[in-house]
Amino acid sequence: MDRPQKFSQLRSAMRKLPGPIVSGKVTTVGGLGLVASGLGESAKIGDRACVAGRIPAEVVATSPEGVRLLPFGTWDGIGRGDKVDLRAGAADIFPGPEWVGRVVDAFGDPLDGIELPDGPCAYPLRSAPPDAFDRRVMGEKLETGIRSIDLFTPICRGQRLGIFAGSGVGKSTLMAMLARQTNADVIVMGLVGERGREVQDFITRDLGPEGMARSAVVVATSDQPPLVRRQAAYTATAIAEYYRDQGKQVLLMIDSVTRFATAQREIGLAAGEPPATRGYTPTVFTELPRLLERSGPGSANSKSGDITALYTVLVDGDNMSEPIADTVRGILDGHIVLDRKIAESGRFPAIDIGRSVSRALPDCHIQLEQAIMNAARRALARHSDIEDLARIGAYRHGTDRDTDAAIRFAKLAYGFLSQGKRDPHTSEEAFATMYGLLAEAGVDVDLPQQVPQPA
């Protein structure tokens, strides 16, 4: 074993040694929460504790009656009088280059049982977002290999987008396609509250060896306590910050921010917060921007990279106006909507182009690309307006030239936008093909002056 590896192991062991400890005892146990006395004024929000020498916990509230703790496990077997050891300070992680290609839990420990060396320095799980004035502007367009995204909702370096969808319409498959095909240096994925059965399926089948080779994956399954599920999102973001500070272009994907919010709601209710909007506690709406704002462009005064981020939002009953979806949409730089009807029709990715928006436009496209996109959007919107009438025979072909062209174009375009899981396409090819489909259908394109037409 070489000296750097020995040093890494020694440092890993040393950071797990307990620091100054203040002891108290359990006075009340009920539901998710536990109240401990005897800790005086030592306890601060976010401090870690150990109950009965075996159950890790976190301080979520303090009061004259005692300190309220939530477990990173369950309170099974805990009773009044059990010892509580408080260790001041929130936990850090030590990400390093070797974390790429590995799967870790919310604490940064490997899930495959193989040793994972610590990185050179600590990264706090809950760091403050970068200063707004110190950030660069969004960078150049990223190639995703997904035609409907590159054409209609392009992603630029440092941009943050939401993927909004109900359950079972292809969010995980879309994320896997982005992880394999997007031209980023490192992919960091946070699977927050994921079904345990689907974790291996996603990693081995959807992500595959080529995606996993440049990915660091953080997993917290749905059966784990809310503190663990919430921490998985913090851990994934901290890992992305480490690679950003190494000058890497990072693609951060968290699935899903809704389960993060649900975990925070459970924590808030256990801490005594009142339920507010549809049962969500006030801290949910303060923690969401604190998490989401940590991604984005890097510092303009350093050689750091950028964190381009995609956050999935599991909308309740396909309701895009429910509180979490509404809040996240207002924070991010655009949103991609997956529609159940489109998925049921067999078109994947099931992206609703009319309801999806990228706030990187129009700067993300050159003038020619913008003209092609605008013409295609107009034609698809016109087809959407007339689709029901055409289906029942209430619209007669030949009544309106532009509508006839839109109907022809929609049939061609939707076939082209349907894409397999392993069928990448460059944006240049996508725009050239889309221009050809517009011309074939007879849709007018307002091309900019002195710009050569696509081949």
TrEMBL record:
Keywords: ATP-binding, Cytoplasm, Nucleotide-binding, Protein transport, Translocase, Transport
Entry-linked Pfam families: ATP-synt_ab (PF00006), T3SS_ATPase_C (PF18269)
InterPro entries: AAA+_ATPase, ATPase_a/bsu_AS, ATPase_alpha/beta_chains, ATPase_F1/V1/A1_a/bsu_nucl-bd, ATPase_T3SS_FliI/YscN, P-loop_NTPase, T3SS_ATPase_C
Catalysed reactions, as listed in the record: ATP + H2O + cellular proteinSide 1 = ADP + phosphate + cellular proteinSide 2
Keyword Translocase: yes
SMART domains the record matches: AAA
Locations listed in the record: Cytoplasm
Boundaries of every AAA+ ATPase domain copy: 157-343
Protein name: FliI/YscN family ATPase
